[in-house]
C-alpha cells in the first residue's frame, strides 16, 4: 500500500467506509443525471482528500521532495491510489476537470504566466464557451473529463495556497521596523518553510507559487531575484524593489550564513578539547598537541566569525535606525503639510487677529446695547431691596432656630425614651433574676424536704423492722412456752392415768 493510499484510508472520513470507498473507486459518471447529489458528493470527497494529501506531503512527485501547494496529476498518481480490492480509481479525470472548472485547481503554467488574478470572473462567457455549452446540451459533446484520459500536468491547489498565504501575512503583520518587511528568498524559506505542516517543508516550487500568489492575487508584496518586500499596512500598494532593499536582503543572508557557521565551530572546539584531554591521559602527546592546534585554529575562526557577525548586526541596527528616521521625517513632512493647510484655512495669524478684533468690537457693541436697554427701564429702589432682603434673612434665621429647637426637643425625648427603655430592661432583668433565685431556693427547699422525708422513711422502716423482729421473737417464745405447758400437761395426764394390771 502506498503512502498516499494509507493516508487517505487513515485520515479521510469518506474513505473509511467500505461502501463509500467502493462508490468512490467506481465509475460514477452516470450519476450526474441519475443521482446528482451522489455524484457531487464523490467529486468533492476526492478533491478534499487530494488537497489534504498534498498539504501533508504524501502526493507522489518526480524528485525526493514533495510539493505541498501543487499536485502532479498523471500515471504515478493513479498507481499510488490503486486499491487491492477496488483497483484503480476511474473518475479522476472528472474530479480534476471539475476542480479546474471551479478554479479550485489551476494548471501551474497558466498560474505562473497569467497576469490576471485567479479570482477574476467574467459575467459574459466567450463565444467558444457558449458553443461548447450548446453542444453539450445537444449531446454532441460530453461533460468535461467524461471521455478524457488523465493528463499529466501540475495543478496548483488553491485552497492550500490560500492557507499558506494567510499564515505568512499573519506573521508579517506587525514588523518592528520597515526593513523587517524586506526578505531574501533564502530568508523567506527559512521563516515560512513549515507554515502548512511542521514535518513537511515547502519546496522551492511551492515558494515560487506562493510569491506569485502574494504578488498578483493578494497584492501584498513585490519581489525580484534578489529581494522580497512586503507591503506596509499604511501603503495602498506594494512599493517596488530598490537598491537599498536588495542590499538589506543581501545583508540578512550574509548575517544568517555567518551565524550558521558559529555553532559548528563551537562544537569542534569542544570536541577537540575533549580529545586532547583523552590523548594526554593516554600519553599520546603528539596527537594531543595536534588536536590542540586544531582547537586553536577553530577558536581563531570562531572569534573571526563572531566579530563579523557583530559587525553585520551593527550595520543592520544602523539600517534599522536610518529607516526609522526616514519614516519619522516623512511623518513630520506630512504633519507640516497638514498644519500648513489648516493654518491657511484659518487665514494665518493676521486672519485670526482680524477675527479677534471683530469679536471684541461685537462684544463692546453688545455691552452698549445692554446698557442702553437698562437705562431706559424703570429704576429700582435699592432701599426696598435691602429691607426685603433683611426680612428674608430674619425669616430664614427664625425658621432655622425653630427647626433646631424642635430637633433638640425631639432628641431629648428620644434620649429620655431610650433611658426609660434601658431602666425597664434593667428592672425586667432584676425581676427575672429574683424569680430565678426564688425558684432556685424553692427547688432547694423541696429537695431538702424530700431528702428529710426519705431519711424519716428509712428510720421508720428500721424501727418497724425492729418491732416486727421483737414481736416475732415474743411470738416464738410464747409458742415455745405453750409447747412446754402442753408437754407438762400431757406428762401430768400420763402420770395420773393408771397403768393396766
Describe what this molecule looks like in 3D.
The protein has 501 residues and is mainly alpha-helical. Among the domains are: 3-120 and 133-241, no CATH class; 252-338. Helices cover 71% and strands 4% of the residues. The strands form two sheets. The chain has a three-stranded antiparallel beta sheet with strand order 1-3-2. Strand 5 and strand 6 (228-230) form a beta hairpin. Helix 13 (285-346) crosses helix 14. It starts with a helix and ends in a 5-residue tail after the last helix. Mean pLDDT is 83; it is low at 135-142.
Features:
single chain; 501 residues; mainly alpha; three-stranded antiparallel sheet; 15 helices; 6 strands
In short:
Residues 394-501 are annotated as: Disordered. Residues 394-411, 424-469 have a biased composition (Basic and acidic residues). With 501 residues, this protein is mainly α.
Average pLDDT metric:
83
Count of extended strands: 6
Secondary structural class = mainly alpha
Q: Write the H/E string, N to C.
A: HHHHEHHEHHEHEHHEEHHHH
Shape summary: extended
What percent strand?
Answer: under 5%
How far apart are the first and last residues' alpha carbons, in Å? 155 Å
GO biological process, one term: vesicle budding from membrane
Biased composition (Basic and acidic residues): 394-411, 424-469
Pfam families: Snf7, WHD_CHMP7_1st
Biased composition (Polar residues): 470-480
Task: Present the secondary structure layout.
Blueprint (H helix, E strand, L loop, with lengths): L2 H9 L6 H8 L5 H4 L1 H21 L13 E4 L1 H6 L11 H10 L3 E3 H6 L13 H12 L14 E5 H14 L10 E2 L1 H8 L11 H14 L3 E3 L4 E3 L12 H39 L3 H62 L1 H29 L5 H115 L5
Antiparallel strand pairs: 1-3, 2-3, 4-6, 5-6
Helix pairs in contact: 4-6, 12-13, 13-14
Amino acid at each position: 500500500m502506498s503512502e498516499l493510499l494509507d493516508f487517505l484510508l487513515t485520515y479521510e472520513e469518506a474513505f473509511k467506509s467500505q461502501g463509500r470507498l467502493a462508490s468512490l473507486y467506481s465509475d460514477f459518471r452516470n450519476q450526474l443525471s441519475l443521482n446528482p447529489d451522489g455524484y457531487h458528493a464523490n467529486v468533492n470527497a476526492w478533491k478534499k482528500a487530494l488537497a489534504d494529501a498534498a498539504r501533508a506531503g504524501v502526493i507522489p512527485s518526480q524528485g525526493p521532495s514533495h510539493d505541498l501547494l501543487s499536485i502532479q496529476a498523471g500515471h504515478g498518481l493513479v498507481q499510488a491510489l490503486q486499491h487491492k480490492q477496488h483497483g484503480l480509481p476511474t473518475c479522476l479525470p472528472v474530479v480534476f476537470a471539475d476542480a479546474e472548472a471551479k478554479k479550485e485547481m489551476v494548471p501551474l503554467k497558466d498560474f505562473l504566466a497569467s497576469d490576471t488574478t485567479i479570482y477574476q470572473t467574467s459575467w459574459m462567457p466567450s463565444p467558444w464557451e457558449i458553443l461548447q455549452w450548446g453542444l453539450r446540451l445537444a449531446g454532441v459533446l460530453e461533460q468535461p473529463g467524461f471521455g478524457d484520459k488523465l493528463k499529466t500536468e501540475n495543478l496548483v491547489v488553491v485552497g492550500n495556497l490560500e492557507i499558506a498565504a494567510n499564515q505568512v501575512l499573519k506573521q508579517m503583520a506587525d514588523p518592528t521596523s520597515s526593513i523587517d518587511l524586506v526578505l531574501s528568498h533564502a530568508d523567506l524559506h527559512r521563516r515560512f518553510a513549515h507554515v502548512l505542516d511542521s514535518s513537511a517543508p515547502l519546496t522551492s516550487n511551492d515558494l515560487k507559487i506562493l510569491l506569485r500568489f502574494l504578488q498578483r492575487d493578494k497584492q501584498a508584496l513585490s519581489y525580484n531575484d534578489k529581494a522580497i518586500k512586503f507591503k506596509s499596512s499604511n501603503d495602498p500598494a506594494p512599493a517596488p524593489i530598490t537598491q537599498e532593499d536588495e542590499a538589506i536582503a543581501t545583508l540578512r543572508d550574509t548575517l544568517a550564513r555567518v551565524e550558521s557557521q558559529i555553532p559548528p565551530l563551537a562544537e569542534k572546539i569542544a570536541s577537540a578539547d575533549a580529545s586532547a584531554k583523552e590523548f594526554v591521559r593516554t600519553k599520546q602527546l603528539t596527537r594531543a598537541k595536534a588536536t590542540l592546534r586544531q582547537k586553536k585554529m577553530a577558536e581563531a575562526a570562531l572569534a573571526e566569525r563572531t566579530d563579523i557577525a557583530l559587525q553585520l548586526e551593527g550595520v543592520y541596527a544602523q539600517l534599522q535606525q536610518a529607516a526609522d528616521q526616514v519614516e519619522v521625517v516623512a511623518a513630520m513632512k506630512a504633519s507640516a503639510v497638514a498644519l500648513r493647510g489648516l493654518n491657511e484655512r484659518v487665514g494665518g495669524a493676521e486672519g485670526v487677529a482680524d477675527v479677534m478684533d471683530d469679536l471684541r468690537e461685537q462684544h463692546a457693541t453688545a455691552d452698549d446695547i445692554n446698557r442702553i436697554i437698562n437705562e431706559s427701564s424703570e429704576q429700582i429702589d435699592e432701599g426696598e431691596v435691602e429691607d426685603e432682603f433683611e426680612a428674608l434673612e430674619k425669616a430664614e434665621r427664625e425658621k432655622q432656630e425653630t427647626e433646631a429647637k424642635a430637633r433638640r426637643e425631639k432628641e431629648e425625648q428620644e434620649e429620655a425614651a431610650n433611658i426609660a427603655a434601658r431602666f425597664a430592661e434593667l428592672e425586667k432583668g432584676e425581676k427575672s433574676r429574683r424569680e430565678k433565685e426564688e425558684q432556685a431556693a424553692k427547688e432547694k427547699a423541696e429537695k431538702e424536704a424530700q431528702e428529710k422525708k426519705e431519711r424519716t422513711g428509712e428510720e421508720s422502716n428500721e424501727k418497724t423492722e425492729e418491732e416486727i423482729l421483737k414481736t416475732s421473737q415474743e411470738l416464738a417464745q410464747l409458742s415455745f412456752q405453750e409447747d412446754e405447758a402442753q408437754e407438762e400437761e400431757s406428762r401430768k395426764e400420763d402420770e395420773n392415768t393408771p397403768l393396766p394390771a
